[in-house]
């Protein structure tokens, strides 16, 4: 089969590799119809993780069951499924509590990223614990839901999870930093939850336009300090007249960028704590921070020694005295995937507004390069299989 293989920093190639096989009776083999490229794939692409050259990338699969092991009971050949990027057993203490991001059996395994699991940017994929990790879907390949359902593997649940980490409730206002797929779907989820106002900060025009289209307020950080911009807009809104000055920020702040934050003054450099600093300046006392963007304990490509070990300075005193809560970590996709699936099926959500490019697998190397450059317009790329 054809697959997207990591060859070293800045290099992926489409290669012919062996088809995956059933190795455990609980496995299924999926024939992919769509597979998305993620901002998380870029951490591997840029050589910022321990993933070795030769690995197949990708963790956002949608397809049809081709084969099942003898122990699989809930899916069968021909079923349409998306697969959660967390590979989880479903029966360990953490999975039972809903924390499939911390599965004890697979040691927090993830497709194409953590553990021995193959990547999903390939014609076929082996799914361990298939009964648990497949999300069953209606419809047929290529239908009106194809580009929505592929986002159930990671990005839609992840955007939604960001709003859970930031404890977004109806009526609250929310600032989202980063208008990539995760930030846009965090903003979209906050709007679905009934947030009173959602601000989205970035500097890429196409992405900010998408934020505006879904009803969020785009904030271009090249036009001035985003914290000042948001406070000024808020002060000009008559609904906030008479509110205590201490509450002139927002209740919920989301970092949808992670450790590879571009420094505002010099976007060629990274400034991993800039967003946390901003959120601590912007979020009201007793408010909530959801840090959904990735931070890693080891980062071989970090520009500083502290960064290489995942150590960062953050304004802890201000966080503490303001009584802020902070939510972090990898998304437990399964926890949210079925509810979000049903929002798509009933027409209440259409997350595919983020998809910008649909490509054959042969074009993946070029798409990685352009997405990595955040080339204007490359927001979300989905590989399509015949
Ligand atoms: N927690 C999880 O389980 C989980 C799952 C999926 C993705 N992620 C992570 O979420 C993050 C975002 O993913 P994505 O696919 O949206 O990636 P992305 O790289 O496409 O989006 C990041 C956006 O942040 C913007 N940005 C950079 N510096 C900025 C700054 N100083 N201020 C404002 N905006 C800035 C960029 O222009 C870009 O649009 C990545 O770290 C990804 O790995 C986490
Ligand atoms: Zn992803
Ligand atoms: Zn488990």
Secondary-structure map:
Blueprint: E1 2-8, E2 11-16, E3 28-37, H1 39-45, E4 61-68, E5 80-83, E6 86-87, H2 93-96, E7 109-110, E8 124-127, H3 130-133, E9 134-137, H4 146-149, H5 155-165, E10 173-177, H6 181-192, E11 197-202, H7 205-213, E12 217-220, H8 226-235, E13 250-255, H9 274-282, E14 283-291, H10 305-308, H11 316-321, E15 325-328, H12 333-345, E16 357-360, H13 364-372, E17 381-384
Parallel strand pairs: 10-11, 10-13, 11-12, 13-14, 14-15, 16-17
Antiparallel strand pairs: 1-2, 3-4, 3-8, 3-17, 4-5, 5-9, 6-7
Helix pairs in contact: 5-6, 5-12, 8-9
The structure holds nicotinamide-adenine-dinucleotide (NAD) and zinc ion (ZN) (2 copies).
Characterise the protein shown here.
- The protein folds into 2 domains: 2-154 and 332-384, Quinone Oxidoreductase, Chain A, domain 1 (Alpha-Beta Complex); 159-328, Rossmann fold (3-Layer(aba) Sandwich).
- The chain contains 13 helices and 17 strands.
- It is α/β, with parallel strands linked by helices and 386 residues long.
- It has helices spanning 39-45, 93-96, 130-133, 146-149, 155-165, 181-192, 205-213, 226-235, 274-282, 305-308, 316-321, 333-345, 364-372; strands spanning 2-8, 11-16, 28-37, 61-68, 80-83, 86-87, 109-110, 124-127, 134-137, 173-177, 197-202, 217-220, 250-255, 283-291, 325-328, 357-360, 381-384.
- Strands 3, 4, 5, 8, 9, 16 and 17 form a 7-stranded mixed sheet that branches. A 6-stranded parallel sheet has the order 12-11-10-13-14-15, sandwiched between helices.
- The two termini are 13 Å apart.
- The mean pLDDT is 95.
- Strand 10, helix 6 (181-192) and strand 11 form a beta-alpha-beta unit.
